[in-house]
């Protein structure tokens, strides 16, 4: 009677293919949640069962349903089962018609409709079944809403169950780790193009410009003043981005170019920072100043409203603050470095470049193209990114304080180790860690989420690792996986194909979920 009821429960959720083992004791507990199951040879022939396959179990006595994942497979010749020594190594096909043995890691249990960690005993001969999609989705606890980034994987195969990231996951910050060619850029493009919230991407390589173009968004470019006319910069940008078909159909103040190829339209805005209007901002976000240097730089700047070119005059006011010579030297070096970033007090076509209207970034997809800034040095690209990120935080903070409202926005940092490194010199470390806290701790409360991607997590600041509550590992070496505490997947991920990854998040019901990422397709590709 109990066996029949267990089989009926299993049959409702999938196809029964085997039984919990009769030949070894079945035990699981807090430290070890694995059991042995056996699949008849004829069933094994017709099913693709392997490491990573999800299976359900219907315990005979408990009356519940349990989801498990295959951790190991075992095949044995009849001689090995009967422990009879072989006289000769002759082939005998009938001798391998033994059951397929599987080691099943128990993941979750359905107890009266509630999915909880597995605790019930699994009885010998409990039916084992291939679960249907809805049962699998329910038992994994994957969200039904949010941005679809891929499909839950069973080994290297797709299960048919969508994997989505909700806004709650994104606002609690996501870290993506993977070596070059593992599929990080593709995954971020899928995420950016599918986001229902505004997205700002900080792009060092120019990989996401086409994503902004495809979505009709905008591209911001901090650009050194090496162009005589704004159109010279526009043409260079289009050529370097493979967008020669686009033409300016409108030019607004700034300058801002509205560009179109007849079917798609996007906005291009070169920008810079006026030092006379932004002394406080530059001191807060610059990677050059020490904590004392930033403080006294701002004090002196308040008394002298010139730009950096006239700093030597302003710097005389430092003497009345009795600033230590080491701090004065730091300020002097930092001012020199700021002048050479190619971002501060930059002219284009004879006019100074200002900052964009950040309220406009609260819609659609914006890419901050840092290629020109990176050519001046990594610190220039970091400074430009921190200026934009801080302005967006200030906008969200103002709305939060004055209106009590959040400003939902997703900030994406590719090559995150360049922005938030682990081993930065002491002078800039404090300002960088303040930036992390501002964006990831205070920003979350104000509606700002971050996604950070890197192929070098060993170089990433510890605070970032602590504050990212969801981690995604793609193909990576053992050291990288160890850094994000996912080294148990090194066997799978060291040789994984592009797009195969493991997600670890508070938002799913089980510890980890393997998945295959969607392949990003631009509109121009799908329409061709």
From TrEMBL:
This is AAA+ ATPase domain-containing protein. It holds the Pfam family DUF87. PANTHER family: AAA+ ATPASE DOMAIN-CONTAINING PROTEIN, UNCHARACTERIZED PROTEIN YJGR-RELATED. The lineage of its organism: Archaea, Thermoproteota, Thermoprotei, Sulfolobales, Sulfolobaceae. InterPro entries: AAA+_ATPase, HerA_central, P-loop_NTPase, T4SS_component. Residues 170-477 form the AAA+ ATPase domain.
